[in-house]
Amino acid sequence: MSNGKSRSKNDVEYELLLYIAGQTPKSILAFANLKKICEEHLAGKYKIKIIDLIKEPQLAKGDQILAIPTLVRKLPEPIRKIIGDLSNTERVLVGLNIREKV
Amino acid sequence: MKKEAKELSKSPTGVMGLDEITGGGLPEGRPTLLCGSAGSGKTILSIEYLLNGAVNYNEPGVFMAFEENVDELSENIASLGFDLDELILQKKIFVDDVHIDGSEFEETGEYDLEGLFIRLGHAIDSINAKRVVLDTIEVLFSGFSNPVILRNEIQRLFRWLKMKGVTAIITGERGNESLTRQGLEEYVSDCVILLDQTIKNKVTTRSLRIVKYRGSAHGTNEYPFIIDKGGVSVLPITTMKLDYIVSTDHVSTGVAQLDEMLGGMGFYKGSSVLLSGTAGSGKSSMAASYAQAACRRGERVLYFAFEESESQIVRNMRSVGIDLGEWSDKGALKFQMTRPTMYGIEHHLNSMSKAINEFKPDSVIVDPVSSFLSAGDEQEVKALFVRLVDLLKLNQVTVIFTSLTSGGASLESTDFGISSLIDTWLLLRDMESNGERNRALYILKSRGMAHSNQVREFLLTDQGVQLVEAYIGPDGILIGSARSEQQALDKIERYLYDQEIERKKNVYERKCKTVEANIASLQAELVAEQKEIDLVIEQANIVRANELKNRNIFMKNRQDYKQHEGENHE
Question: How many angstroms separate the CA of residue B126 from the nearest CA in chain A?
Answer without folding.
Answer: 10
